[in-house]
Amino acid sequence: MELTNATGMVAGYTLGMDPEGRESVVVVVKGTFTLPEDGSEPRLADEQADLVLADEFTGEPGFSASVYECDFALEKPFCDVLLNGSAYAPSNRPTKRVIAELTFAGRTKRIEVHGDRVWEKGLLSIYPTEPKPFVSKRISYDYAFGGSDTHPQKPGRSKAYKANPIGTGYHPYTSGKALIGKPLPHTSEPGKRVDVRKGKFRPMSFGPIGRVFPPRPSFAGTYDDNWRDNVFPFLPADFDSRYYQSAPPEQQFAHPVGGEPVVLTNLTPRGYAAFNLPEIDLPIEFTDVSCQRTERQAVLDTIMIEPDLARFTLTWRASHPLRRNMLEMRHCLVGHMSKSWHRARRSGKAHYSSLGALVDARKRAKGVGR
């Protein structure tokens, strides 16, 4: 299938399959925009981020936090609003703790961010040290409450914190002198700072949750003997597309239409940034081998805000079911093209955006003929 991208953003396509085994061609469009801190309108960035072909992590896959997930999900019932970044001390003055806030469409998530803390020996017990002052502190599930712990007397016995198995500070087995020097998490719910080595603390970050973090596994479906014997390699019948949502549940929204307000507090060096999502009409036109055209409106389902990189990305998705296979699709147009382009395509003629483009094309053709 030929893909024509008229958006100035990046676009690509793949095949997707639902639990009933039906295939669809899935088109994904990602736009990278400048993140304004002065109240101005976001603009399309000169450098566009590539589509993510495989999950990316801060370190070893499966043992570190997710940074980006593969962009080629079949569908997302909701929009993931994500943020990879850092908390900043107000006025650039070192502080022991700060409240970082991400507000989207009037709904706010708050995270209390602390300076470095470790377990230290006291006169009568082992206790957490006071946070060290900081100017900026990275926010990540690597540093949120969680992790895993191994029993000191039984090396084969270990336990992971299911809500965040790659985090910091969870020590159901380690205690006493062995706990001295162990780090505590950098983040917590406001007013619920972690000060014990085990408990049911909520891991706090704005970034993607891992594929094994709850509630995602509950949406993945049932992989039992019946699936192995009668369904494999297809998805189980009870697979739920909410599995593809990589944002924590409180960061999932109805699909935006553009214009929604975004406010960042203590997530940029200036301390405050506010802007509205750009309003972008993004049609996707599919044409099959019989020249039948079907237009679908792409849906905005992933927002990734990266204040430390002064940018954010918007990802749209549209899918078209296939009757048999990919060979039945001839062309896909992403975005808007001129009426002259459509006339030229219907007549089978070449289209040139300007007289200069026509002259350049003829010069290239003559050069090839020599």
Outline the structure in words.
The protein is mainly beta and 370 residues long. The protein has helices at residues 216-219, 225-231, 339-347, 355-369; strands at 2-5, 10-17, 23-34, 56-57, 66-68, 79-83, 85-88, 97-104, 107-114, 119-121, 126-128, 136-139, 145-146, 148-150, 158-160, 168-169, 187-188, 252-253, 261-265, 272-276, 283-288, 293-297, 299-306, 311-321, 329-334. The strands form 8 sheets. A 6-stranded mixed β-sheet has the order 2-3-24-23-6-18, with no helix packed on it. It has a 5-stranded antiparallel β-sheet with strand order 17-9-8-19-20, with no helix packed on it. It has a 4-stranded mixed β-sheet with strand order 1-25-21-22, with no helix packed on it. The mean pLDDT is 91.
Q: Quick one: how many beta strands?
A: 25
The quaternary organization reads as single chain
Order of helices and strands: EEEEEEEEEEEEEEEEEHHEEEEEEEEHH
Shape label = flat
Percent helix, as a range, is under 10%
> Which blocks of ≥5 consecutive residues have pLDDT under 50?
none
**Rg computed from alpha carbons, rounded to a whole number of angstroms:** 25 Å
Q: How would you sum up the major sheet?
A: 6 strands, mixed
Based on secondary structure, the structural category is mainly beta
How many structurally independent domains? 3
Distance from first to last alpha carbon: 32 Å
| Average predicted local confidence, pLDDT | 91
**How are the strands of the largest sheet arranged?**
2-3-24-23-6-18
Number of helices: 4
Binned strand content: 25-35%
